[in-house]
Amino acid sequence: MEAMVALVEDERKLNAMSNHAFSKVSLIRLTLGALGPADPEALRFCFDAVARGTIADGARLEIETVPGEGWCPSCRRAAPLPERFAACPACGDAPMQMTGGYELRLVELEVA
Predict the structure, then answer these.
(1) Domains of the chain
(2) Measuring CA to CA, which residue among 47, 87, 53 is closest to residue 70?
(3) How much is the average pLDDT of 42-71?
(4) Using CA atoms, how far apart are residues 36 and 58, in angstroms rounded to an integer?
């Protein structure tokens, strides 16, 4: 979360040189992969701590969870991936290659 707040601060600095300058962030929206190592509640707790005293202090944090997705190299199909190293639901081969569900992305900022 420290890196995320730093990214928001960097965005403010970049926008200060244009017509899109802002001085306060009211909303930060993230996407978080369901198969990733981060827990949404832990992110919320950390965000409150690291945002204190920054441009993001008091901002609302919204986290959308993205489901896992995989690709089976044997039957060449994409399928939902309920857990890491899961077998392909079509052919049973394991493990599928993870293609989604591991990300942590800054999707949107609401600023003033």
Answers:
(1) 2-68+100-111 (3.30.2320.50)
(2) 87
(3) 95
(4) 26
Q: Is 20's pLDDT higher than 80?
A: no
Radius of gyration, alpha carbons of the chain: 18
Distance (Å, whole) CA 56 – CA 58:
6
DSSP alpha helix (H) spans, the chain: 2-16, 40-51
| Residue showing tokens 């990300």 | 103
Distance CA 20, CA 112 (A): 10
E strands, the chain, are: 25-33, 60-66, 69-72, 77-80, 97-100, 104-111
Q: CA-CA distance, 46 to 84, in Å (whole number)? A: 25
Model pLDDT for residues 69-111, shown as the tens digit of each residue: 999 999 999 999 999 999 999 999 999 999 999 999 999 999 8
pTM: 0.82
Evaluate if residue 30 carries a pLDDT over 80. Answer: yes
